[in-house]
Design brief:
Structural class: alpha/beta
Order of helices and strands: EHEHEHEHEE
CATH architecture: 3-Layer(aba) Sandwich
Number of strands: 6
Number of domains: 1
CATH topology: Rossmann fold
Helix content: 25-40%
CATH superfamily: Phosphoglycerate mutase-like
Radius of gyration: 15 Å
CATH class: Alpha Beta
Largest sheet: 6 strands, mixed
Strand content: 15-25%
Distance between the termini: 28 Å
Number of helices: 4
């Protein structure tokens, strides 16, 4: 199974008059989302199931990709690792799954799957981490990091 974790791009700062879920992408965030969408569109299989947090910044990040997606309230900013893995149907999904969400849970998911000795990985804004699990033989399963991509590395 492939699990692709895409942290939302840079968003405006929240404050007392702006609810967290209403924060929009900044101009820099829009550029980050567009660059990553360009890379993802040429690398994601068509069969990829895309699940998005309900916050405005994650939906705006996803809009750059222009593919079908499903908003999942279970992926709100305070989601747990267990919830995210259940929503993704890890490791049993037959198709690749991409989650567009938030820190700290994206980093916690990455740490749980690929680095058993730390609690969280730092996934920066706009970055994509691609985790793959493959069977090796009849009884052994390997989980590995297939790619980390940042908007700065995308040439468009």
């Amino acid at each position: 199974m492939d699990l692709i974790l895409w942290r939302h791009a840079e968003a405006e700062q929240g404050g007392p008059t702006m609810p967290d879920e209403a924060r929009k992408l900044t101009a820099k965030g829009i550029k980050q989302a567009n660059k990553m969408a360009y890379w993802l569109d040429s690398n994601l299989p068509e069969s990829c199931r895309i699940l998005v947090s309900p916050t405005l910044r994650t939906r705006e990040t996803m809009e750059a990709l222009d593919r079908k997606f499903k908003v999942m309230h279970e992926l709100e900013p305070d989601a747990t690792v267990e919830t995210v893995l259940a929503v993704a149907n890890w490791p049993n999904s037959r198709e690749p799954v991409m989650i567009i969400g938030h820190q700290p849970y994206l980093g916690q998911v990455a740490a749980r799957l690929i680095t058993p000795y730390q609690e969280e990985c730092a996934i920066r804004k706009g970055n994509v981490w691609w985790i793959t699990q493959k069977s090796k033989g009849e009884t052994e399963v390997q989980t590995y990091l297939k790619a980390i991509m940042t908007p700065d590395l995308v040439v468009k």
